[in-house]
Amino acid sequence: MAIDAATVRKVAHLARIKTPEDRLEPLAQELNGILKWIEQLDEVDVQGVEPMTSNVSQPLRLRDDVVTDGDKVADVLSNAPKSADGFFVVPKVVE
Amino acid sequence: MTDLTKLTLADAVDGLKAKTFSSEELTQAFLTNIEASNPTLNAYVEVTADKALEQARASDARLAKGEGGALEGAPLGIKDLFCTQGVQTTAGSNMLRGFVPPYESTVTANLWRDGAVMLGKLNMDEFAMGSSNETSAFGPVKNPWKSKGSNADLTPGGSSGGSASAVAADLCLAATASDTGGSIRQPAAFTGTVGIKPTYGRASRYGMVAFASSLDQAGPIAKTVKDSALLLNSMCSFDAKDSTSLDVSTPDWTQSVGQSVKGLRIGVPKEYVLDGMPAEIQKLWEQGVEWLKAAGCEIVEISLPHTKYALPTYYIVAPAEASSNLARYDGMRFGHRAEDFSSLDDLYATSRAEGFGKEVQRRLTIGAYVLSAGFYDAYYVKALKVRRRIAQDFDNVWGQVDAILTPSTPSAAFAIGDKQIDPLTMYLNDVFTVTTNLAGLPGISVPAGLSADGLPLGLQVIGKALDEATVFQVAGALEDAAGFVAKPDRWW
């Protein structure tokens, strides 16, 4: 499954990383090198093996559905690139 | 008076309790050493001198009253991926430059509860993605060790390069670190220090900047096995704020260090013999086997047949999780926001292109690719299945052995700039360490000897889940037998 510049453009968009046109081809080559190495996994027989998503076998804990935290507007906004009147300020989303 | 910065953590804690010296004196000694050394070594990205002295005085007040916790007055370095309230936390990235957490990570909160003093935040590979500390936005850390007859600057390994370098150069008594594929154990091996990654779920991930959540685990880098046990005691706890935190008690692991290993069965996995592995690594491993034999261990050859697939599995699982975790950096609520953009989408993409370094961008791209429609099953799900095979390999041998002995790394520390051409050569650094992350097992690196070039080499002990006690026991025996006392000659 060789990756070409067009695929890199698409994946870079999925990852929301702006990638200049002249970087697409070199990136494709790098990724192909890594993916080719990864493809040795095809040798492994995984018939009937359940995917392993976690090292922890315990079920997720549930807690009481009560408010335990909040009223921290200043804390929440303290690292915002832009904020005003207790809100995040973001560019216009709907034209 | 002796140089206080050369003390072990355990001896320093004892000296503070006995009032042989004060925490303020000890802290000041480290701050002086940092001031002289850090411009060269670049281990700290921020030194919190005022806060440190304030904490030290508070510790001295408690110690004067005969009070204080297990780490009372002990000055530590904190890897810059642990959120520290009111102190910038960057994870080595321009994306988080200027980010000041309004909350404290559970691991560091545990340390302050036990009386520790924070000297500052330690340099690291960007978002812990790297094995040489060269991906840091703050520049590479230098290893205090140098090869015999060469003046080349060496890497301290990564991603916890700042932690390892700071401990090796006596810029803190011990340091916190984190390990996703080997980021505690490889830098420990490269710097002649001890580093342990505990069982996944032992230390809370709350307030740790996330890389790959199913693999990330905090642990210490320290000067001795006992020091690492002492620090790990404090770092671990059950924490309701981390959904994968294990609700288990934390034993006092310092009690395991120095216990006889007689009768323990030690596995030696034949798959860890690599083609082209340097002879001195093989020799060190054989030496480790001999030491444990002499201490009364039974050596058992074991097979972990899926070992060679661990790295390629890791390079699907970790980037996939990273691509999901790092989606939060969109320039909206915190982190870097680009100034120039043409649309909302362009703002996301430009902020991320400006904020993330090259290696992070590479891994996020791989992650997005292996999770994308059409490739998800072939790459991601496949890797999760192989991951289970790797974990089963270990399950299959625990009936025959109590712990496993391997080298920590396939080489000694390398020069800065040496492995940047091909990402794959860099990835191979983690070949011996990454299996325990995938399987969630504890692993420790203990300095065991010097290479022909005079650089430290480490041996790794892997244990069963939640059996850090045996890991510390075996590590203590190796430390005793190796008698590793070498320190780097001060050139910085």
Automatic annotation (TrEMBL), chain A:
Enzyme class, spelled out: ligase
Recorded GO MF terms: asparaginyl-tRNA synthase (glutamine-hydrolyzing) activity; ATP binding; glutaminyl-tRNA synthase (glutamine-hydrolyzing) activity; transferase activity
Keywords: ATP-binding, Ligase, Nucleotide-binding, Protein biosynthesis, Transferase
InterPro entries named in the record: Asp/Glu-ADT_sf_sub_c (IPR036113), GatC (IPR003837)
Function: Allows the formation of correctly charged Asn-tRNA(Asn) or Gln-tRNA(Gln) through the transamidation of misacylated Asp-tRNA(Asn) or Glu-tRNA(Gln) in organisms which lack either or both of asparaginyl-tRNA or glutaminyl-tRNA synthetases. The reaction takes place in the presence of glutamine and ATP through an activated phospho-Asp-tRNA(Asn) or phospho-Glu-tRNA(Gln).
Oligomer and partners: Heterotrimer of A, B and C subunits.
UniProt-recorded name of the protein: Aspartyl/glutamyl-tRNA(Asn/Gln) amidotransferase subunit C
Organism: Brevundimonas diminuta
Organism lineage: Bacteria, Pseudomonadati, Pseudomonadota, Alphaproteobacteria, Caulobacterales
Gene: gatC
